[in-house]
Amino acid sequence: MKRIGHPKDFWSGMLFMGIGAFALIAGAKYTIGAAARMGPGYFPRILGILMVLLGAVLAFRSLRSKGEAVPPWKWRPTLLVLGSVVLFGAIVKTLGMAVSTVILIVVASAASHEFRWKESLIAGVALAVLAVGVFVIGLSLQLPIWPGQG
Amino acid sequence: MDLFSHLAVGFGVALTPINLMYALIGCLLGTLIGVLPGIGPVATIAMLLPTTYALEPVSALIMLAGIYYGAQYGGSTTAILVNMPGETSSVVTCLDGYKMALKGQAGQALAIAALGSFFAGTVSTIFVAAFSPPLSALALKFGPAEYFSLMCLGLIGSVVLARGSLLKAIAMIILGLLMGIVGTDVNSGVARFDFGVPELSDGIGIVSVAMGLFGFAEIIVNLESTEVRELVSRKVSGLMLSWAQIKAAAPAVLRGTGIGSVLGLLPGGGAMLASFASYAVEKKISKHPEEFGRGAIQGVAGPESANNAGAQTSFIPLLTLGIPENAVMAMMVGAMTIHNIQPGPQVITSNPQLFWGLIASMWVGNAMLVVLNLPLIGIWIRLLTVPYRLLYPAILLFCSIGVYTVNNTSFDVMQTAAFGFLGVLFVKLEMEPAPLLLGFVLGPMMEENLRRALLLSRGDPTVFMTRPISAGLLIAAALLIVIIALPNIRNKREEAFAEEGA
Predict the structure, then answer these.
(1) Number of H helices, E strands in chain A
(2) Which of B297, B330, B311 lies closest to B369, judged by CA?
(3) Shortest alpha-carbon distance between residue B121 and chain A (Å)
(4) Which among B185, B226, B417 has the least Cβ separation from residue A86?
(5) What confidence tens digit (pLDDT) does each residue in B323-334 have?
(6) Which residues of chain A neighbour B155 with C-beta distances below 8 Å?
(7) Using CA atoms, how far apart are residues B132 and B222, in angstroms rounded to an integer?
(8) Cα separation of A105 and A36, whole Å?
(9) What is the ipTM of this complex?
(10) Count of CB atoms within 10 A of residue B378's CB?
(11) What is the helix, strand, coil percentage profile of chain B, to 5?
(12) Is residue B450 within 8 angstroms of chain A, CB to CB?
């Protein structure tokens, strides 16, 4: 098999085609109507078709054009940064602002190659005090401070 | 003169203690995030949008606007002292500003950047005030066909500054439009693409999209690299400019202001384009082009004035036509919508206090920024010494709390993380998120105007070409595509981005 000339464009083309096709399939149940009386499916259908077309052209052209390879994906920052946020979202209502903040800060800090345990714990506690003070007490956000208060 | 009575109304609003305070908060935050690399105005505005619910609309907009032009001031500080753009619009300032700092002229570079910006800010405030009323009046005559075409032009314009291929950027717009129509269709009441998730039937929140794509993704990408930034000097002394420097810089400031004001008006324009264009012009007309890149003061004065002028005049299309021309303006649309203000030509007549108050606050904010950035420069320099490993978890925390508070639901937090993942994928594949955000904001409006235009024409699509203004706008959009696609311009574009990446 010949190598793909422009991998970045190729994969973006594939992504666009995938999303476009998905929109067309998922949106198939919405009525189209006519141009003068558009149904809820009219505009999405136009967009879906355009996306598939643009994606296809992009992917096709990328076979011959030249471009850099897709840079490698380091899993650690992505996983830990997004993981800390998801975790925070999942626990903040039950465990409260204080504990959740410390957990978010420590997990997120671990994403850096300069991670230090002690330092991130101290930062976590300091920010927890700040977050509770500003958001829960100051702006009276509807969130518990401690576990079991929710 | 009408202009002065309008401005008097504006200053009446802008100078109330409460609005002065919000302008100050906006400017402080703007300078802060401008100075700090790794978080831009789009993510910051997204973070703060939820906190503006409780504010008066005018106070909210004054604060958010302050963030945008405040970031233009702050960004130059980092560019000059660390040789790293605090903001994309200060990329070119690195070239000569950093060299000036190496020569021991950091103080002068900072001074001309701030004073040039202030001058540009003053002129462009008047520009905004003078230009907006006639443009609004014109826009009030627009029907749905004109609006649809105008949005096409605006969206195509956002591609000018996108990296990578033109096709890819256009596909990003379509993706944005598609994401924008998720949720209940206003006409039929059908919930589209909600997949049975109740949270999605209200549509995808702009805060989640912007914060994920611009905030989280940026942090993750920063963490992947291990480069270290170094501060040239911790002590900046000698803010005073010499007479020779003033004489050299003044014409550059004037030209930069002009270039920035005009480019800010155009679709796709704004701070970044303005600074690139101004640098190119200064280098071209200079008698000593070889000095550029070695610490030429014109290379700091021009672009820094231009980016501030551009940042301000890019409010004109938003305030008069309701069309955002860059990602920050898209966030302003979100802010106005939160407060039930439909951006468009009617704002100036239905909300004159808000309109003129916002404009007057721009000048007030600029005056504050000179004070914040010159005498207080030491504080910002100290901030630069805070290591990134302490900074980004705090940014993440405030983002997470911010996005949670939009609807008080964990779903939004998860959704934002998903967009963060998508954002990293976009960076890897060189897909530009700014056109997507514009499409996202304009999606529902575009569908509505298309629907109305075709309803009025009884389904005849030629209506877009038979109405002269609509046809003109569509032709302009087509021309824009052709111009961007021309090989000559394409190379120039790639050069500019190469310079930025360096």
Answers:
(1) 4, 2
(2) B311
(3) 33
(4) B417
(5) 898 889 999 999
(6) none
(7) 39
(8) 54
(9) 0.94
(10) 11
(11) 75, 0, 25
(12) yes
Residue A1 confidence (pLDDT) above 60: no
Q: What is the pLDDT of residues A23-60, one digit of tens each?
A: 999 988 898 988 888 889 999 999 999 999 999 999 99
Could you say which DSSP state residue B277 is in?
A: H
Contact B79, B275 (CB under 8 A): no
Q: Which of B164, B170, B147 is nearest to B451 (CA)?
A: B147
Mean pLDDT of chain B: 87
The mean per-residue pLDDT over the stretch B73-78 comes to: 87
Within 8 A of A25 by CB-CB distance, chain B residues are none
Q: Which two three-digit tokens encode residue B31?
A: 């300078």
Tens digits of residue pLDDT in B360-396: 999 999 999 998 888 888 888 888 888 888 889 999 9
Can you give B301-354 as a three-state secondary structure string?
Answer: HHHHHHHHHHHHHCHHHHHHHCCCCCHHHHHHHHHHHHCCCCCCCCHHHHCHHH
Tell me how far apart the alpha carbons of residues B59 and A96 are, in angstroms, rounded to a whole number: 31
Q: How does pLDDT run across B18-71, given as a tens digit for each residue?
A: 999 999 999 999 998 888 877 788 888 988 888 888 889 999 999 999 998 888
- pLDDT score for B367: 93
Pick from B5, B12, B4, B1: nearest CA to B357: B12
HSE-CB of A26 using CA atoms within 13 angstroms: 17
A:10-29 residues touching chain B, CB 8 A cutoff: 11-12, 15-16, 19, 23, 26-27
Give me the count of residues in chain A.
150
**End-to-end distance of chain A based on CA atoms, in angstroms?**
59
Q: How far is Cα B84 from Cα B97, in angstroms, rounded to an integer?
A: 10
DSSP state of A70: P
SS3 B192: strand
Give the orientation angle of helix B468-485 with respect to helix B487-501, to 10 degrees: 70
* DSSP code string of A74-125: PHHHHHHHHHHHHHHHHHHHHHHHHHHHHHHHHHHHTTSTT--HHHHHHHHH
Virtual torsion, Cα B59, B410, A101, A150, nearest 10 deg: 100
Please identify among residues 86-115 of chain A the ones whose CB lies closer than 8 Å to any CB of chain B: 86, 88-90, 92-93, 101, 104-105, 108-109, 111-115
